[in-house]
Structures are given as structure tokens and as C-alpha cells.
Amino acid sequence: IRRDPKVQWGIRLKFHSRWKDTADTVIIGGGCVGVSLAYHLAKGGMKDVVLLEKSELTAGSTWHAAGLTAYYHPGINLKKVHYNSIKLYETLEEETGQAVGFHQPGSIRIASTAVRVDELKYQMARAHWHPTPQFLITPERVQELFPLLNMDKVLAGLYNPGDGHIDPYSLTMALAAGARMYGAQIYNPAPVTGLTPTSEGTWDVQTPHGTIRAKRIVNATGFWAREVGNLIGFQHPTIPVHHQYVVTATVPEVKALKTELPVIRDLEGSYYLRQERDGLLFGPYEKMEKMVLQDSWVRDGVPPGFGKELFESDLDRIMDHVEMAMEMVPVLKTADIINIVSGPITYTPDLLPMVGPHQGASNYWTAIGFGYGVIHAGGIGKFLSDWIISGEPPYDLIECDPNRYGRWTDVPYMCAKARESYGYNNVVGFPKEERFAGRPTYRTSGVYNLLKDKASMGFHSGWEQPHWFCKDGDDAGYKWMEKEIMEGGYEVDIKNVTEDFGVLGVAGPSARKVLQKITDEDLSDAGFKFLHCKTIKLAGIPTQAIRISYTGELGWELYMEQKDMAALYQAIMAAGQEEGIDNFGTYAMNSMRLEKGFRGWGAEMNCDTNPLEAGLEYFIKLNKPADFIGKAALQEVKAQGLKRKLSYLTMDTDNVDPEGNETIWLNGKVVGNTTSGAYSYSTQQSLAFAYLPVELCSVGQKVEVEMLGRKYAAMVVQEPLVLTEPTRTRLQKKSKSKA
Fold it and tell me: Which residues form the Aminomethyltransferase C-terminal domain (predicted)?
């Protein structure tokens, strides 16, 4: 029966449900991520949830996954996803009555170099203010937990109790049972053959068995994501990667253990290893030059019928890692290999999934690009269901925004970046590190060629942006608008012109004087007010007009077509020679904005904060008649009172500076976290913004900031340490009037 799709379909329709013609949400894809979303939506109260699976549940990447579950993530926001997944998996069997095969022996990340130890200390400083259990442990404790290790090179371990592994098939079936229990419908085999948007913003989802009219659709199709995206004109930047893991027969030393071994991740060896029954399972991440992309699927599509098949294994390709694993875990030398699994997992260029509503198609959502779908499934299902049901994301997950990619993410870039991301999976990660595979894209500004040899370039949404400039002798080293227009009935056209226009910033005490040399427009304080914007003409620039805005201490921002950018840059540099004009990058700008007490988007301001606790009440008029977006929510926040506020810290440091997300301590307890930090060259000290309880926000309050395993003294001070230009001007005028 399972080999005959028609018979299987008839049985499922007869005994499980009748075909639905309408749905609130249609989820396409029956892997662990898609089924988790169906479970969470139905449990959250959505009545008409339908999941369509083209063959059978878990087909694709889920069924052959190694099933690792880890609290650990090097980022900040995804820690919440991992945490929510594990907490769900701990209770899912009791809730649904379905066994999930969840083992929680813990995990250890092994550090065998001094740099690795620093990396673990760095991660500890970013973990204490999260609920995730995480500990930096000694070699003796590592050996106690994993007695089969060769300890010759082990210097330390990062230990997460509660980590482990789960059976991906059983997990998915338990989630499916829960989804059905709460009212969701799961149809398979039901391949989607067409997706047609309607004028009302809904979708007609075509299958061989009929059409479903859906209020929204969610693409959760794993390595079929590009093909489903192609049905509506999108080319999602996802690519299948060959990932191998090895399973051994029974190992006597493992069988003799009384407790299950924790999962280990040998970072220098770039592999994970866990107990599999009485044997071992280990999976490496090959280097860039050896790993294999299934790029033919990008070009020609996934072969018809591929679902629970595997690739040919290639032990020679991973022998370097096998030998390192044998050195670290000597019992592997005499273990018999009974299976080598080589299957496709999906990568995006930056290794992070694409989660949320997609611009350019109303009510089209994605949950794709999961290289680690098992640990992400539970948390992402909860995250997306909360967002869909309430209309707001429950927390900031902007790094997974599907709209971070665009036309610039072409196939050569995607392949180069996926190869780099896979090959660099376990390399030491440094703050502010840049990776250069696939760069530059075609997104280069009009001044890129003028500046590329003078600057160390950073990468932002496909653009090359100078982080810092070299001196002589140095080496260069959402809201979501479419939804508002549709629901509000506004007569507005949205066009993405990001690639057509460039921006130059001119800042500093002489910026106004320099710009005045090349325009007849009045740029005086009286003629061009703070936060005003005008269209002006500049001498010697062929373009019709330049848009210019004055942002106070952040300077003047000039917007022009890319073709005019080089000419404008050269005109400004020529005009400023007498004033000693020079280039500056984003690192210098970050340091200077901290000196002035300016908040940064994505740091002090994000989806997890509100303007009142961020100290931005000056920019908000809650008593204005207009019912602006967020007004009611802010009024409620103000009425309830704040529990924390953004504070401004100076720090006593040595050779390390804060960068954000460090843990803040007081009297041995975690009390908050930094949001951003840098060294202040004007005041010769380290500065940081931090969120602290309101009772700890008074000027003079002393706290400690954890960095690289040490706690550094810090103090709340009055912001800013360096006055802004408008403030200086006002004080100067006041002083003169008194004189």
C-alpha cells in the first residue's frame, strides 16, 4: 500500500479526514519544522490548519538526521529557539502519548588550544543572562563526564547539561499526533503543483486532489524550497549539502558504561560524536575544498521521487576527521563501522534559516534553509505560530529574516558562501570577523573602486561597506510595509530602489562649512534645521538633484544615484582639503556614537525592547491626536511602569573591550546585559550601553561586566560623555549671552 500513492491517499482520506477546500494556513512540507508549525498553530487555537506533504512525513532531510539537540548557539536570539525546542521535547511524549526517543546526557565542546579556551570564555560571558544552563569546566570534569577521552590535548570544556539527541522520525510523528489532536489536518501524499495569489491577498493552493483557498501559505519544504518558491517567482538561496556521519557496531567499552556518554564536539577536529545504543556515532564537517554541494539540484531541480534516498558515501573524503576522532576517542580505532549515512541537508549562504513573511508576495511565509532542523523545529514552530496568530513576532529574530537576501544572492555567491559556511563550521569565531567567499557581489556603490584599497570592507545586505580606513603603513585588512498597505487600504506603491541609490555621510565640526562650498543652498543652523531633509543642487555634479538630510552629530547624509556617487565623493573631498577632511568607517562611527550616547538599531533598539526603556521618550509624543502605530502599546507600557532601563557605563578594562551581549553582575548575581560597546578614543576608556533593573540605573551605581572569563568594574554615568554639536552650540550661545 505504501508504494501506491493513490491507495495510500484513499486510506488516509477515509480514516483520518475529508479534503478541505479552505484553510487559515496551509503549510507545505512534512518535515519536523513544518509539522512543528502545524502542531503549534493548532494548539494555539487556529481552527483551520492544513499541512500538505508530497510523499510521506520526514521525507527529505529529517528522517536521516543525526538528531542532535543543543542549548548552545553562538548567537543571542537563536539561543531562545534552542531553549524552547528542548523544553518542548522534554514534555512532548507525555502530552501526545507518542515516544520521541529523547536522550539528555548533556554535551561538551572541547577546547584543545588556548584560543579555543578564550572563545569558550567569550561565550560564557554572553550566556549567563539567558536561562540556558552552561558551564566552563576543567579537564578533570571533562574526563569524569566522558571517561573514554584521550586527555592529552584537552584544556577545558563548555558543558551544557540537558543537551543530547532525539530520534527525528519519532519526534515528527509525535508532533503530527499532537497537531491532529488539536484539530490540524495532515494530507499526504499531496504534492503542491501550483500557487496562485488572489486579489484578496489569499492563495489558491493546487494539488492533484483539489484546490485549497488559504489565507496564508508557509513554505517549509526543506531542499524543495527553491522549487516551491519558483511557483511564485522566487529563487530562494538554499542549496543541498552532502553531510556524512558514521555509525559503529557495539563498542565493549561503551557497553560497559553505567551512564550514557555526553555528546562531544571536538572543535579542532571539526566533528560531533555521541553514543548510539552500545556503539558510537560521529559526523564531521569537511573543509571547503573537500565538502560536496549538490549544485545540480539548484540548476535542474530535485530528482522526481527523491525523498528517503541517500547519496553514495565517501569515507576517503572524511578520513582526516576520522583519524582525529580516533586520536581523541581511542576506542574508535578498533570499532567496526556498520553504516555511513550521506544525505542532503539544506544550507543558506550564512547558515541561518529563512523564517517569517516574505516581501513581494502577500501572506507568503517561509520556514526554510535549516541546516539543523531538529533542534530548530520546536522553537521555530512556536515562534512562527505566535507571530501568525498575534500579528507580532514574540522576540527579535532579525538574523533569520528571509528578506535579508535579494537578487544579489545569485547562484555563484550562494555556492561559494555555503561552501565557506560548511567548511568553517567549527573554526574559531572572532568578534567583527569578516569572511570573503563570494564577495563582492554586484552590489558595490559608486565609490567602491575608489575606496576598496584604502579600507577594510564589511558586508551588509550584499553591500561592501568600509569598516575602517587605513593610514600610511597599515594593511587593509521589519514592518512589515506591504501588509500595512493591504490592510489599511492605502494608495501607495512600493518599489525597492536600494541598488539604484547610494549614500555618503559627512560628519564633524567642519562638515557644514565644507558642504556649503559646493552648494548655494543655505546650510546654516537657521536655514537647515535638525532632522530636516531637502532636495538641493551641488556645484559641478551632473545629476538633477541630491537629497540631503541633517542628523545633528551624525552629520549630513547625501543620497544620490549610484552613477553620480564617485563624482560627488571627489567634489566633497576636494572641498574639504583645507579643513583636513579624511575617510572614516563604521567602526569609528560606532565608537563616536557611543561617546555621544546615540542608540543603535539592532542593539539598544530591537523587537525585544521598547522606546521608553531605551530612553527615547523625547522623540515620542503620546499626547498627539494621531493614533500612530504602537501608541496604545506604549501607553500601556507607561501605565504599567518600567522594570528596566538603558544605562550608560564606563569600564575599567585592560586589553579587552565590550562589544555587546556581555553578562552584567552585582554581588554574585546576574542583573543585566550590555547591548553594545567600544573603546572611546576621546575619553580614553571603554564605554557600553546596558539594560539594568530600574533600581540599578542611578548615576554612580557600580556593577561588573564579564569578558573572557573575568569580571571588569563598571559604573553608571550620566550620558553623554562627549556633547553633541547642537548642545555645544547652545551652551556657547548661553555663555556668550551671560558674558
Answer: 644-722
Q: What separation in angstroms does the CA of 630 have from each of 91, 392, 620, 621, 624? A: 36, 12, 11, 12, 13
The H or E element spanning position 15 is helix 5-15
- Sort strands 22-28 and 49-52 into parallel, antiparallel or unpaired: parallel
By CB atoms closer than 10 A (0-12, 13-18, 19+), residue 305 is exposed
Asked if residue 345 lies in contact with residue 197, where contact means CB atoms within 8 angstroms, the answer is: no
Q: Classify the C-alpha dihedral 628-634-635-636 as positive or negative.
A: positive
Provide the CB-side half-sphere exposure for 692 (13 A, CA): 25
Mark out the alpha helices in 16-165 (DSSP H runs): 32-43, 78-96, 114-125, 139-145
| pLDDT tens track for 672-712 | 999 999 999 999 999 999 999 999 999 999 999 999 999 99
Residue type present at position 687: L
Stated pTM of the model? 0.87
Residues in the chain: 739
The whole-angstrom separation of Cα 366 and Cα 219 is 5
What's the rounded mean pLDDT across residues 188-208?
96
Residue located via cell numbers 544552563: 133
Structure-block grid coordinates of residue 171: 519526534
Q: How far is CA 312 from CA 92, 297, 303, 369, in A?
A: 35, 16, 15, 23
Burial zone of 325 (CB within 10 Å; 0-12 exposed, 13-18 middle, 19+ buried): buried
Q: How far apart are CA 699 and CA 647, in angstroms?
A: 9
**∠497-500-506 over CA atoms, to 5°?**
105
DSSP state of 554: G
| Sequence-ordered alpha helix ranges (H) in 391-426 | 411-423
